[in-house]
Amino acid sequence: MMLDFHNKSISSNPPINLVKARFSDFKFLEEVSHLEMDHVVSQSWNWRSWFEDLKKAIIGNLYYHKVFIIEVEQGCVGYLWLNEEKNSLWVTAIVLQAEFQRRGIGQQIMNFLIEESRKEGKENIELGVQNNNIAALSFYSNLGFKKFDYVKSANTDLFRLKLSSSKDQLYW
């Protein structure tokens, strides 16, 4: 599984590390979530269930879910929450503090996830984006993600990036 690491350097420019979250990181996760995602979570879910699931993911009670702290030279700047399945990777959340958004960090994280998913033979990467989050919709569309479904109750568009396997490339 590609998520079996505790500390992984994924980029040198800018320098980005993913560090497996521990329960002691929860206060930081709570703070950055409220600062950067209140407009999303409060409209579509509720904070209580978000944080309960986040805690379960950190301690390992949500099967195949992993949470990583995003670190750059300045320290902890956000987190990445993933769910790895046999043939796909679900990106639950990439949360960055506002001052670190639009600096290439999210791009580097997604490049890493795409590359590692291909190496693992995954068929696709999937995620959900609130349909009022124009910046995220544009970001994922520019990476090649295509809308495949909609969750009305969560006001969320579901996106998928189909990954080509080396077997597919042999026949083209």
Walk me through the topology.
Layout: E1 7-12, E2 15-20, H1 26-44, H2 47-59, E3 65-72, E4 75-84, E5 88-96, H3 105-119, E6 124-130, H4 134-142, E7 146-151, E8 156-162, H5 166-170
Parallel strand pairs: 5-6
Antiparallel strand pairs: 1-2, 2-3, 3-4, 4-5, 6-8, 7-8
Helix pairs in contact: 1-2
Account of the protein in words:
The protein is of the alpha+beta class and 172 residues long. The protein has a single domain (7-170), classed as Aminopeptidase, CATH 3.40.630. 35% of the residues lie in helices and 34% in strands. It contains 5 helices and 8 strands. It has helices at residues 26-44, 47-59, 105-119, 134-142, 166-170; strands at residues 7-12, 15-20, 65-72, 75-84, 88-96, 124-130, 146-151, 156-162. It has an 8-stranded mixed β-sheet, sandwiched between helices. Helix 1 packs across helix 2. The chain is globular. It starts with 6 loop residues before the first strand and ends with a helix.
Structural key phrases:
172 residues; alpha+beta; 8-stranded mixed beta sheet; 35% helix; globular; single chain; Aminopeptidase
Percent helix, as a range, is 25-40%
CATH architecture: 3-Layer(aba) Sandwich
Distance between the termini: 28 Å
The major β-sheet equals: 8 strands, mixed
What is the CA-atom radius of gyration, in angstroms? Answer: 16 Å
Provide the domain count.
Answer: 1
Spatial strand order of the main sheet: 1-2-3-4-5-6-8-7
**Uncertain spans:** 166-172
- Mean pLDDT over the residues: 86
